[in-house]
Amino acid sequence: MNITDYMQTTGRQARAASRAMARADTATRNRALLLIADAIVRDSALLRTANQLDLDAAKAAGLDPAMIDRLTLSEAAIATMVEGLRQIVALPDPVGEISNMKVRPSGIQVGQMRVPLGVIGIIYEARPNVTVDAAGLCIKSGNATILRGGSEAINCNRALAKIVAEGLSGAGLPAHGVQIIDTTDRAAVGALITMPEYVDVIVPRGGKGLIARLMAEATVPMIKHLDGICHVYIDAKADIEKAVPVAFNAKCHRYGTCNTMETLLVERSIAPAVLPRLAELYASRQVELRADPESFALLAGYPHLAAAAEEDWKTEYLAPILAVKVVGGIDEAMDHIAAYSSKHTESIITEDYSAAMRFLREVDSASVMVNASTRFADGFEYGLGAEIGISNDKLHARGPVGLEGLTSLKYVVFGHGEVRN
Amino acid sequence: MNITDYMQTTGRQARAASRAMARADTATRNRALLLIADAIVRDSALLRTANQLDLDAAKAAGLDPAMIDRLTLSEAAIATMVEGLRQIVALPDPVGEISNMKVRPSGIQVGQMRVPLGVIGIIYEARPNVTVDAAGLCIKSGNATILRGGSEAINCNRALAKIVAEGLSGAGLPAHGVQIIDTTDRAAVGALITMPEYVDVIVPRGGKGLIARLMAEATVPMIKHLDGICHVYIDAKADIEKAVPVAFNAKCHRYGTCNTMETLLVERSIAPAVLPRLAELYASRQVELRADPESFALLAGYPHLAAAAEEDWKTEYLAPILAVKVVGGIDEAMDHIAAYSSKHTESIITEDYSAAMRFLREVDSASVMVNASTRFADGFEYGLGAEIGISNDKLHARGPVGLEGLTSLKYVVFGHGEVRN
């Protein structure tokens, strides 16, 4: 197979299909989603057989247990996929909504209509559930999609591609509305991210290595997430009864997520009261604390204590490790955040109105919180209904990205024969 | 001067200044704008002397009259600049606005706050008025700015830079909030568009050659405008009394603007009635018509008639030339537009409700109109109050870009000590 030709053909087909996907009405797009859900239920044995081929190959290749786990399409995983599709059907249709319609002095009426982006390329790891999840969100938002899943899931993805194409055709939508790249050749990714004539945006879902590579090579714009170095700042005027559970939850609810707190900043005057109480909770989970000299002194005797190095302020641990620093107040806290944050999520714990307002306004991160755990930075918790990813970028979409992030606004003008003078 | 070092320093200074620019309140940013306006009035003789140096050099270098014209800072141009700044002061402040605040089942309240993008790089031609105009919009929207104007305007831009810095300082804002690249070395542009660590977005204002070069090299995202191949489609059910003035205005109001119609599509059954009437008007302006065979026949005897070639459908004439084609109906019109439009602005002339709704929904352009001249695709006509440019991109901002396009939305969360379960 000539990869360049194959990808050009795939792109051309996606672009052609995107017009029919965009003009399809809500009922048609929902019907396709329900047909896909039904077909997954019907073919679940077949899907598991295909998945078994992938699993056998993965085990033979010595893949690590975490990857095998993600690759596995259990009965429960299939049920979750199907339930996810049905939830997407229930979401309101973002496409076609018109807002801000205003009459202008010239007589024209101007507003903005929400429309699909066009063709979305999704690059992800060997997780077959993402194939269905991403296809579902793109169909719902009226986009055509090109999916590139991890090569270890190729058999399962092929089987899913057949089901998705069947669902699209059954609803009268073009089968090329969702295409899965049917090659494990890595050059396909290079082609996908450099054909802006056919692809409007790339959504990479994967680790830092993948994203860094894409950033260096892509000429198609990306909605991307790099890392989450999230901070909680406990202010002088914090309510300790809020500060302690929030700072515990932000670190210990889950360690491997991007919205987990990685650095705790504590104001000097409150630190002696708050740090020992937090230390008790962290000790119950064997969290290692990497402390600056001041917090180190206050934490003396903590069983998993280490001195923080400069590198700790820049590290996304994704592990039971927390950097801790005493600061002189909100300005020093915000300076630290400006210097080291990945602009993902930061939270201030305070009862001081003006401090809360300053933090909300001045901290330049995708999510800025008062008196809440950073773990809330999530599409479902925010009420988006679904999440295609979390964006660290500033243009287009910041923070959790739902269906709206897969659309844009065009201007619409209702006239009555007006001409410009 | 080492350009790399100079640009790194400029970028670092802009990033540092951006925090103070973003947190400044509305009154402070407006005060800076008014101080700049006053200083321009005070120093107008000085500015004109600096401009004369540029003009002398430009004339000695043999620049064409159109460029000399754009470079000239007349008294009227100075007055317009000052008036523009005062209009920007009067615009509502987009920064800090919170929308969509919702209470979630967890107890947190989530909404979105409009915030500055950070550092904006603007690259433009030798037009000193753009220096003030762009600086004004960036100050108003709370951004730090790096301006790179055409090298022919360097003396005038230096004088303006001094005035802008004085205005910023006078209002208590960092003088580095607006920096003008003080070198004519073209390598400075290459550096500016490849330092995403310091620059959040590039807004190029210039011809296609400039944009094409930037697109090939930039790693910083751009809000850009490539070209305007705009269409008017006169439908079978058009009101001829609207169709004729709109199609005349769309072509002849101004020839050199990006929202000027370049191709006219006319439905077959109405063409014999509408084309001769339009031809009379176009003839009065010596517009050359490049016609497909069917319209060619209907236009027989028109004094400036030529047969359209394939290339004509792809050409932005920016001149008194119009491509004309007869089509079978709305589907053929939309197919032609999908194939050849630059996705800038298209308008349908029709009294048919369903045709109007289909055109609005299905045509994938930044502005889609019914019964109005394409010339309305403009920030002022749309009521944005100001315009930094027009975007052909799909992400972030489409169509005319005003102050909002220089901002983005971050999530803000008001909590009460909530933790995630």
From TrEMBL, chains A, B:
Listed pathway(s)? Amino-acid biosynthesis; L-proline biosynthesis; L-glutamate 5-semialdehyde from L-glutamate: step 2/2
Domain of life according to the entry: Bacteria
**What InterPro entries does the record tag this protein with?**
Ald_DH/histidinol_DH (IPR016161), Ald_DH_C (IPR016163), Ald_DH_N (IPR016162), Aldehyde_DH_dom (IPR015590), G-glutamylP_reductase_CS (IPR020593), Glu-5-SA_DH (IPR012134), GPR_dom (IPR000965)
What Enzyme Commission number(s) apply to this enzyme? 1.2.1.41
The record lists the catalysed reaction(s) as: L-glutamate 5-semialdehyde + phosphate + NADP(+) = L-glutamyl 5-phosphate + NADPH + H(+)
PROSITE patterns assigned to the protein according to its UniProt record, in alphabetical order: PROA
Q: What is its main location?
A: cytoplasm
Tell me where it resides: Cytoplasm
Q: What class of enzyme is it?
A: oxidoreductase
For the Aldehyde dehydrogenase domain, which residue ranges apply? 12-293
A Pfam family this protein belongs to?
Aldedh
Q: Which GO terms describe its molecular function?
A: glutamate-5-semialdehyde dehydrogenase activity
Keywords carried by this UniProt record = Amino-acid biosynthesis, Cytoplasm, NADP, Oxidoreductase, Proline biosynthesis
Which NCBIfam families does the record match to this protein? PRK00197.1, proA
The entry's family comment says: Belongs to the gamma-glutamyl phosphate reductase family.
Role:
Catalyzes the NADPH-dependent reduction of L-glutamate 5-phosphate into L-glutamate 5-semialdehyde and phosphate. The product spontaneously undergoes cyclization to form 1-pyrroline-5-carboxylate.
Protein name per the record: Gamma-glutamyl phosphate reductase
